[in-house]
Amino acid sequence: MRPIERGDGTPFLDTVEAIALALNCTPEELFASPSPDGPAVESLVLAARRMVPKELAWLKEAVSLMIKRPGR
User: Whose CB has fewer CB within 10 Å in the chain, the N or C terminal residue?
Assistant: First the structure.
């Protein structure tokens, strides 16, 4: 890990996958740019990416109802 932290080494893919697993994220998320919408939106997107289709459908419906609510 030290050479990677210092920028002296390039990790193998299995090392990147192990780091991502330890951090409970995907390898892609390790290299993703921060969201221009801020950390709140970024955390919602990351959570949605981990959802199963049934959970994602529920979330989509919940957001749709929130957008349509009176007084918005």
Answer: C
CB-neighbour burial class of residue 1 (10 A; exposed 0-12, middle 13-18, buried 19+): exposed
Indicate if 14 and 48 belong to the same structural domain: no
pTM as predicted = 0.46
What's the mean per-residue pLDDT of the chain?
Answer: 85
Separation between Cα atoms, residue 19 and residue 22, nearest integer Å: 5
pLDDT at 15 > cutoff 80:
yes
One domain for residues 70 and 40? yes
Q: Under a CB-based contact definition with an 8 Å cutoff, are residues 60 and 53 in contact?
A: no
What span, in angstroms and rounded, lies between the C-alpha atoms of 17 and 15? 5
